[in-house]
Amino acid sequence: MTRTTTLALGSLFVGLAVLGIKTLAWKMTGSVALLSDALESIVNVATAAAALLAVIYANRPADANHPYGHHKAELFSAVLEGVMIVAAALAILHAAWGAFATPRVIEAPLAGLMVNGAASLLNAIWCWLLITEGRRLRSPALEADGKHLRTDVVSSIGVAFGVAIAVITDLPWLDPLMAVLVALNILWAGWGVMRQSVGGLMDESLPEDMLDEIRTTIATEATGAYQAHDLRTRQAGSAIFIEFHLVVPGNSTVTAAHEVCDRVEAALETLLPGSIITIHVEPEDKAKRSGIPVY
């Protein structure tokens, strides 16, 4: 089992545990704000299951029907997560509307908030691990799951504050108001998750800082060539694709040109482990003004 799969499976178990704890907090208090927190945890469980399936599928090797691999499966999972976040927000808004119409007295607020706080602490630890490891492993599914949990942690802090104020001031309408704010917060988070994932599905280029590192690596390692041009990059899940044209002297042997390509590929793979690199070798008359000069 890969590290990515292990973390995705762990997210499922953590999500189930947090859901149980937050549901208990809601039952203890009757707070619609704590109910909204529990509803978001249902989404956490569903998205963790989707991320687990996506990670397992994305790790399958390339085959005849998918010669570039199955990496984009993680991006579909992240899009689905964004959609489910929006669905949870709508469910929370519905529950809040009912609470505005019929205000409820919050029972055992201190005990309920302590129970809910324990769930939030567990979520905080796990979201930090998912985001850190998701970026290191270049896993969109894990990183999206971690960012969703981070939103959940922020929401839980706001919920706790709102419930405490509602009890102290004896203003029960503050409870559903906090639920509405939670819904708006996770709607914004859902949009961010979908935006990033759709960008991956549309084969957006790598970030400019990463492109600068790639250009510098090519310029310093392609000794023996004149320049590189038409650099194109994209990321599909954990896989990074790099393509460019390398201009070499017209009288270079195939062996000499191949040695330059091998050296550049090795340096790029060190910079971005697991990257898939395609180099098209051209003679010197194909050089372009906008190319990457070789030092």
From TrEMBL:
Q: Which GO terms describe its biological process?
A: intracellular zinc ion homeostasis
The protein, known as:
Protein p34
Question: Does Transmembrane appear among the keywords?
Answer: yes
Transmembrane stretches, by residue range? Answer: 41-58, 78-97, 109-131, 152-171, 177-194
GO CC, any one term: plasma membrane
Nucleus among the record's keywords? Answer: no
Q: Which residues form the Cation efflux protein transmembrane domain?
A: 11-202
- Coiled-coil residues are none
The Swiss-Prot or TrEMBL record annotates one GO molecular function as:
ferrous iron transmembrane transporter activity
The organism is: Pseudodonghicola xiamenensis
The entry's localization annotation reads: Cell membrane
Q: Which family does it belong to?
A: Belongs to the cation diffusion facilitator (CDF) transporter (TC 2.A.4) family.
Give the chief site where it resides.
membrane
- Indicate how the chain sits in the lipid bilayer: Multi-pass membrane protein
Query: What's a Pfam family in this record?
Result: Cation_efflux
| Cation efflux protein cytoplasmic domain mapped to chain residues | 206-284
* SUPFAM superfamilies attached to this UniProt entry: Cation efflux protein cytoplasmic domain-like, Cation efflux protein transmembrane domain-like
Which of UniProt's keywords are assigned here?
Answer: Cell membrane, Membrane, Transmembrane, Transmembrane helix, Transport
